[in-house]
Known about the structure:
174 residues, alpha+beta, Nuclear Transport Factor 2, Chain: A, four-stranded antiparallel beta sheet
Amino acid sequence: MEQQERRAALSAFFWTITVMSIAGGILFWQADAIPSVPVAQANDGAVSQYAAALEIANTRLTEAGNRIMALENQPVQPIDVPQVQIADVPAVPNITSAAALSAARTIAGALEPLTVPELVDLDGQTVWSIVYEPGTVYVSATDGTVVLVERNQPDQRDRHEDEDHEHHDNDHDD
């Protein structure tokens, strides 16, 4: 079996060399039969088109370079830039939200906050806002002191209590 494979490979090699030699000879013979055309005659039109396009491109580049030089030589006009107020930038808190909660608990006692502490601006001062059911405690973000205790409006609390009673009353009607 191995001997047959070798014979097949040698036969394929021999035939490939033979066919390529014949094809190369035919192509070489045909190349001699084609009359040659002078290169200058064939490319005269293409060369003149290329030269014209090159001249146009060079003209445009020169014009663009002149415009750039003119712009570079112009005096720079000052631009009015608005001044940034330092007060507009929020202060970085020195007190963490956990420390603010601890300070607020001195006022709120055992009440649990309704939301997580949130940094807010209170009359230009950065404070932590901690919301409880009866009101909101504001703790300074710089030193941890309680700045303001804001109580909810009594009519708002009464309205919530009335709604709670209505819900409970409706549950007992069946």
